[in-house]
Each structure stands twice: as structure tokens, then as C-alpha cells.
Amino acid sequence: MESFGKLLFTPAVQAEQDKVGMRDRYAQTYETRFTGPLDDNTRTFIQTRQSFYMASVSSHDWPYIQHRGGPAGFVKILGEEQIGFADYAGNKQFITRGNLETETKVSLFFMDYPRKARLKLLGRARMVDAKDDPNLAARLFQDGAAPTERLVVIDVAAVDWNCPKYIEPRYSEGEIAAMIGPRLAALEEENDLLRKQLAAFEANQT
User: Fold this and answer.
1) CA 114 – CA 171 distance, rounded (Å)
2) In which element (H, E) is residue 68 found?
3) Can you tell me the distance from the alpha carbon of 74 to that of 110, in angstroms, rounded to the nearest whole number?
4) 8 Å CB contact between 84 and 133
5) What is the tens place of the pLDDT at every residue in 69-119?
6) What are the tens digits of pLDDT across the range 43-71?
7) CB of 148 within 8 A of CB of 139?
8) Cα R_g (the chain), whole angstroms
9) CA-based diameter of the chain, in Å?
10) What global pTM score does this model have?
11) Cα 125 from Cα 107, distance rounded (Å)
């Protein structure tokens, strides 16, 4: 993989960094930062996400952001620097698919709102009809998912982690249930006991 800074710190970006005295610091930080294969932490993070956002660019140079979601594990690690996922029937606008016909560069955000973590990923993507590559379709298969129409493979060019400062924590239904489930169960048990005690008390009054 390339350095995230090498790909995104253009002369114009560096000029802005110069204005606040950050250019040299970033140059040193990003010289060798995340330039090897996807590490274990990054792999685990990607494979445990239930959604991500992906930006592509149209032939008119307009960016387009698409959300993709599924059960944890729907994004697969296909190689040291390659990820993929199955794509299903949507609104049939095919904006991302059309964009990839003329420009394969994409940018992805993987979010973990409870931990306030965000992984940025740059890559080159391609779409394959599922029927044209059954072996890849099998690798990207997800139990309980809708029929797969397309397969998306992304060769990772660079990754970086974002500062968590302005990420507001949000929780899925499952995460909320895990946090408050034991307390709710205890309250229900206590409530049941009180109901029985009240019923016994009322029976003794008659």
C-alpha cells in the first residue's frame, strides 16, 4: 500500500498545512504510516463493521457517496491488500456502477460509533456480475442475505485512522440490548416478585 499522505497531500493541501505549521509534522508522520499489508487490527475492524460509506467519482467529476450495510462480516478480506463484498438489488440507479466504468478510484469510511473510531480507505474498485465468477461469489456469500447480483472487489491503495474528537457515539439495537439487557432482566424479575408478593398480600386480606 501507499502512504495515505502521499496520495492525498497534494501541493494545494501542503500549502494549507504550511499556513498552520503542520506540513513537516505530517510529512514525517505519514512517511511510513500504514504502508504495508492490512494489519490484524484493520482487518478485524473491517470484518466486524455492519455498514460503510463509499465515494466514487462520475465522468463529470462529481463525487457520489453510497451507503452499504449488512450483518457483521459482510465485507470480506480477500488478500493482504484486497477486500470485497456482495452487492444486492437496490433502486437500480446504478450510479456507482456507472462511475466505476470511467474511474475506478474510491474512498471508503468504516465507522464504529460506540468506540468513536473511523477508518479511511482509498482503493480501486471493480464490479463483477455474480454469475460470471461463481468462485468469487462463493467467497463473498453471506448467510441469510438476498440473492447476490454483483460482486465488488477493492484493491486497497491506502488506509488511515481518523481522530475520534467529533464523532458522536451511536448504538445499534443489538448494542443497546447488550448494554441494558441484564438490567432489564433484573428489573423484570424484581417486578415479577413484587407482583407475587402483592397478590399474596391481597389474598390474605380476604
Assistant:
1) 6
2) strand 63-69
3) 13
4) no
5) 988 999 999 999 999 999 877 677 899 999 999 999 999 999 999 889 999
6) 999 999 999 999 999 999 999 999 999 88
7) no
8) 24
9) 88
10) 0.82
11) 10
